[in-house]
Amino acid sequence: MTPRPLILDVDTGVDDALALLYAAASPEVELIGATTVMGNVTVRHATENTLAVLELAGLGHVEVASGAARPLVRDHEPFPVVHGERGLGRAELPSSTRAPSSRSAAQLLVEAARERRGEVLLVATGPLTNVALALAEEPGLPELLGGFAIMGGAFARGGNATPAAEANIWVDPDAAQAVFRGFAGREAARLPLCAGLDVTDRVQLSRAALDAICADMPGSPVARFLQEAVPFYIEFYERFGVAGGAAMHDPLALALALDESLGTFETTRVEVETDGQWTRGMTVADLRGVRHSPWPVGWEPEENARVALDVDVAGFLTRFADRLRSLAEAPA
Ligand code: BDR
Ligand code: CA
Question: What are 308's strand-pairing partners?
Fold first, then answer.
């Protein structure tokens, strides 16, 4: 079977790096581009990290386009406590000698979707600024893409950046709101498939599981990278009182986009709180269908998202480990 073309929009960070490695190890897709955005780190560091991780994975030929340096209307502060100063924990990969693309992230997204109409799967694992800019440039993006998935939101539970908001949405709630509205009313298969904290917080990679993966790939540069990058991220969760390991947010979003049978989804309407003093970045999902009640409450009726509410935790973790192991032979 011909692999589906995939673009990852990333704020590379430890778990974004793991999503890039998962993509490299997934035969059902061909990574044709990576676009970068500020979030976990500055966009400059996100771009450098993405170039370096792709080289580690043997994907040094993949186009990397640098994107938004700040949210649509707000300022940006990276959060080094989660992923480290440079974003990859304690890992220091060799800097790539390649320059990023001359195209901007939004340009790459729009042009790739136009060139390969109906084929490109876009998976966004950072703030949605680049996707909002691409939609502003090409409002027909939902029809041009072959699929769209997001790591972001917390739909039937609380947040991680604040009690209300998940980090990717919190960084640029205006962009997220524009994206959800831009996809409203499309047929269900074209709606963003959202892997929020409802599912991503449940797929935890423990130190033991990490060690087991690395033990099976002795001497591999990928294993060395995993041992230098991931424990820092696990330590963040431990300081937060989570004993089971670090949440595999971004690889899960990609895994669900590639195989929806790993999750269960509800098609609904999502609005993003852009102004609330305590609720900024909150993803409010109408999971009860209240907007269809005879009492008009000001919500648009059209659906704009498919949100994941359950996940096959063991199924994902097994697949994740198997795919990372398959990179044992990736060139340094
Ligand atoms: C998301 O925020 C970032 O820290 C991670 O990379 C992930 O995309 C989880 O809330
Ligand atoms: Ca991310």
Answer: 265
